[in-house]
Structure formats: structure tokens, C-alpha cells
Specification:
The protein has five helices and no strands. With about 100 residues, it is an all-alpha fold. It has one domain.
């Protein structure tokens, strides 16, 4: 995107790649939970999974926004990245550490 000076189409394409990665992550989570059964530790650990649900929605909004205001799309991409950089301790809290 840097070579194209954040033009609309490259920004939208970048958002599409991010959206597909978010969907793949969601599918992976669902497959792991389905394999573990209805009492899956992962299901209990992720809970409502607000980050996982909000990210694809924000990516979709950013893709649409890239054609109207590419700066807004870039802002949304950075916001989602920062949202995921913040450590999430849900899994660590759910699964007890193994004592040796």
C-alpha cells in the first residue's frame, strides 16, 4: 500500500485479505470446539469472543470505507491490530497450569 500512497483499491484489497484471515480464524475455532464436544475448554475460554466477532465486522466496514475515505479504512485496520495486540488472558485463566 505504501507504493500506491494508500489508494482505494489496494486498501480494499488489504482489508479483504484481513477479512478472509478473520473468517478462517473463526472457522478454525469452531472446528476445534466441535471436535472437543459441547464441554470444550476452548468454548469456555473464549466466552462471548467479542474481539473475534467485532474484527470481521470492522474489516468489512473498512473495505467499504476505503472507497470513500481511505484514511478511515487505515484507521480501522490499525484499531483492530491494536485491539489484538492487547494481551488476552481468557485461555490462561481457563486452563490450569500443569504442576510438575
Amino acid at each position: 500500500m505504501g507504493d500506491n500512497h494508500f489508494a482505494s483499491l489496494p486498501s480494499a484489497a488489504y482489508g479483504f485479505v484481513l477479512l478472509m484471515a478473520a473468517i478462517a480464524f473463526y472457522i478454525l475455532q469452531r472446528c476445534i470446539i466441535a471436535a472437543d464436544g459441547k464441554f470444550s475448554l476452548l468454548k469456555r475460554a473464549i466466552g462471548s469472543d467479542w474481539k473475534g466477532k467485532l474484527s470481521p465486522a470492522l474489516y468489512f466496514v473498512a473495505i467499504c470505507a476505503s472507497f470513500a475515505a481511505h484514511w478511515l479504512a487505515q484507521l480501522i485496520y490499525v484499531t483492530v491490530a491494536i485491539m489484538w495486540v492487547v494481551p488476552d488472558k481468557r485461555i490462561e485463566r481457563t486452563i490450569d497450569p500443569i504442576d510438575e
